[in-house]
Q: What sequence folds into this?
């Protein structure tokens, strides 16, 4: 089963902020290379989005929230997404650095249900 991956504007903004930070601290080439990594990981969600674990706090939310970890060591990022099986859509809604605390159930609900137009990643 093939899914369409949509990235919420908030998640795109968060990716751009990380890339901007990397560019300011390093170079455009390093930032561009970093940005290509999460994009590749998100494309992989088209085939098996349910292979990643769910966030424990999401059990209190209507939809399961899944967590994809991207990166290594102290440069890992948490990518949060939900799966709509009926429409075969994976919606990425939030990205944060691994060192930041996990969102609470209320924060997950607010982030996941934010009424915004998602951008297809394809």
A:
């Amino acid at each position: 089963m093939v899914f369409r991956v949509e990235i919420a504007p908030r998640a795109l903004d968060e990716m751009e902020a990380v890339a901007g930070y990397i560019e300011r601290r390093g170079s455009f080439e390093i930032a561009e290379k970093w940005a290509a990594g999460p994009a590749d990981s998100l494309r992989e969600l088209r085939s098996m989005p349910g292979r990643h674990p769910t966030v424990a706090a999401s059990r209190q939310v209507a939809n399961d929230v899944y967590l994809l970890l991207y990166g290594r060591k102290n440069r890992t990022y948490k990518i949060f997404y939900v799966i709509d099986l009926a429409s075969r859509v994976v919606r990425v809604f939030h990205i944060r650095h691994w060192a930041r605390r996990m969102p609470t159930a209320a924060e997950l609900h607010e982030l996941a249900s934010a009424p915004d137009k998602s951008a297809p990643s394809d």
